[in-house]
Amino acid sequence: MPDQATPTVTKRLAAVLSWLSFRNISAIYIFAVIFIVFSIWVPDTFLAESTWRALIDSQAITALVAIGLVLAVSTGAFNLAIGTEVGLGAILVAWLLAEQGASVPVAIVLTVLAGGVIGLVSGLLITFARIDSFIATLGVSSVLLAVISWVSSDQQILNLSHSFQRIGTGEFLIFTWPVWIMIGVGIVVWYVLERTQGGRHIYATGGNIDAARLAGVKTRRVIVLSLVGCGMITGLGGLLLTSTIGTGDPTVGPAYLLPAFTAVFLGSTQFREGRFNVLGTVLVVYVLAAGVKGFQLAGAPTWIPDLFNGVALLTAVALAKYQGRAGETHVLLRLLRLDRLLRGRSGRGDGKAAGAAAPEA
Amino acid sequence: MGPRLLAVSGLRKEFPGLRALDDVSFELRSGEILAVVGQNGSGKSTLVKCLAGVYRPEAGTVDLGAPGEAGAPEMHFIHQTRALVPGLSTVENLALGGAGRETGPLRLSKRSERRHARALIGDFGLAFDVDRPITEISPAERTVVAIVRALDGWSRPDNVLVLDEPTAELHGEEVEKLFRVVRQVAAKGAGVIFISHRLDEVTSLSDRVLALRDGRVVGDVPVAECDHDQLIQLIVGEAIGSLDKAARAENREVVLAATGVAGATVRRAALRIKAGEVGGVSGLLGSGRESLAGLLFGARQRTTGTIEVLGKPLRAGDPAASIAARLAYVPPDRHADGAVMEMSVRENLTLPGLRSLRRAFGRLDRRAELREVRRWIDSVGLRPAEPGRRLELFSGGNQQKVVIAKWLRLEPRVLLLDEPTQGVDVGAKLAIYELIDRAAAAGAGVLVSSADAKELVEVCDRVLVMREGAIVAELNGDRLQEKRLLAEELGLDAAHTEQLFDENEEEIRA
Prior knowledge:
The complex is a heterodimer.
Chain A: H1 5-19, H2 22-41, H3 43-46, H4 49-58, H5 60-74, H6 82-98, H7 104-127, H8 133-152, H9 162-169, E1 171-172, E2 175-176, H10 177-195, H11 197-207, H12 209-214, H13 219-245, H14 257-268, H15 278-297, H16 304-321, H17 331-335, H18 338-343, H19 348-353
Antiparallel strand pairs in A: 1-2
Helix pairs in contact in A: 2-15, 5-10, 5-13, 5-14, 5-15, 6-7, 6-8, 6-13, 7-8, 7-13, 9-13, 10-11, 11-13, 14-15, 14-16, 15-16
Chain B: E1 4-15, E2 18-29, E3 33-37, H1 44-52, E4 59-64, E5 75-78, H2 90-96, H3 110-122, H4 139-151, E6 160-164, H5 172-187, E7 191-195, H6 199-205, E8 208-213, E9 216-222, H7 228-236, E10 254-263, E11 266-274, E12 278-282, H8 289-297, E13 304-309, E14 312-313, H9 319-324, E15 327-330, H10 334-338, H11 345-350, H12 366-380, H13 396-408, E16 414-418, H14 426-441, E17 445-449, H15 453-459, E18 462-467, E19 470-476, H16 482-490, H17 494-509
Parallel strand pairs in B: 3-7, 3-8, 5-6, 6-7, 12-17, 12-18, 15-16, 16-17
Antiparallel strand pairs in B: 1-2, 1-4, 8-9, 10-11, 10-13, 13-14, 18-19
Helix pairs in contact in B: 2-3, 13-14, 16-17
């Protein structure tokens, strides 16, 4: 009887089809469109190997910073200080090397540690001082801007050694080092989020902090540690940025805020049904970059990248809102606290009324 | 009965792999109260969502008003998850619905709004602070606010009111108050669709019962023509035996001992739970009953008192430490505290006890996890049995099975359950009682806190009664009866209690 086999076959087919659906991997379809359009429009430059290598190299740091951000937002902590954390890492490593005479390894370790300390402070502000993550990280961001300005006196820091610059520009196989570092960090963060107890605790905390706490998850520790991890990764990103451009520039950091958030949000619409994830995030960074690159090669004006990224972010949120499947809550809406208004559930409030908001030991 | 207000015919709604509604037809007339009953997953919620226009049915029609009548009646919905704005007060929430605007649409008078809000709530015989944020009043009070808002400011009396599990969080007396208002509304000409899991309520309130099973209408009968047992049979599809109260051993070891515990609405409580017994806590809203289980577990911070589990003192307000001490706690509000709805069954089931699945480099053994989760899904009868499905896509009863299973998996010594069957249908209710029984048989000391006196009598060996923040009585054996419980909850004097008790005996004799 074929009836026995048919259900499992159709089930499997349905699973494959739903994985291939536009909603699940829209970025791949968009990439295909971008690729075809620009291959026809500007074939000579768009299809050149050098174009793609430059593209992959130039976006490695953005991807790295976005990976760090995945770690933070997965616990529900909106880290708005991500841009200035990059900026601090960039200026701190230059200052340590050029003005304090630190050796390269020492400067690297100190810079990454400084990123961790910033994450720790943000985390403690959110969990113990109970400041909303938006406000806490916005405040931290402003403080970091001041520190950057103070350390650098608003001047570029020059005279960085060649051995340091080689980290950002040196190549291994076909890519520069930052690409490999990004891939390495990406694998570690992916592993932690998808394969370990810590990852489950992170997603549970971001999903419902009260339920996670009652299930024995040490939610404060989870939030603090993921922000520390995020801070270390962004510190590393800043360091690589300085190494790549060869100077400590006090103005470079904030430009990473929007691309990182765009990638993380759009990335959450890929693969994992609305859950923040590393793979989707990295994919989105490169799909957006390919689109921007195509426009640039086709001679589009300089404001195109900003427009492209902005529209992409807005589309991500809109897509999430109209995801269509009944009863599902998209992570974006949850973070933006829209679902409570849309569904009219009193949500966290119930927890408070039930006294569940009592301080956690 | 008056003219027809609503006609539903041939309604069909399909989801991938599931026909949620199949050829559902019924009518609702002015002045009629129609109860819709059925197990979780029978299609009740889907029906409400089709009526509300949330879902578009594949086939069938929903017509409002009598044929040829000008100006169709409106439909008003009160959902399980009540649509109130959490940050606003009662007054402000009511004002959003247009209440109290005696001064015209542009000039909102705070004072008249407040007066109006108090008056509306007063109609329910309730008086609470209408200026407190909605999140700080009790669930029962919130239900009242939502209902008051829906009832307020109707342009015509013969509208359709849909109440989706309005009593899930209400206590006996409050339910009566609500029913009085619902009957008043129906008497004025409204048609009411009432959805509830509590069959007693169905029989006492409604005129007609519409029973759904697997998305089909299996019964559409006047209430007068069917009794409680027939109703259950309609819903479940087969006759079910009542739950056997397992013979539980006496003189077992004390697994939890609490002395002088205070915090939230509990002023002072001392109690002991023995291994293998099922204890209950009863009490009116505000008696301390609603906070006791959470306090014992550490979900809320206790201000004083000591709790010992298996002779070892328990840290206050630390769920992780409580779990390590082998306590388990099923909170009353599944959505807010019980589970991470956006995560899968599998992730929820193993969340509190991932340690046993941890391998080298912190890797989770996902294959072992899946095996274990499959076993639990089987053991609690989860429907549909899909470990990867998100919890929010399951019905209330099935969600609760997952919440309980995640604790049973850890083989707790003390199992604390707060309103374990809230918003759960008859079939799932029995399944949950069985799980409670199973936990006790496995040696856990169980404490069930519930507003449902009948449930406590059915499930528990003994029941503690709370009043004004303290445990005032314990009922067990023959004394464990619904009426006695109620009398103790209300704090009626001994003579009155005896009188009630005598009446009860007369009833038994009769």
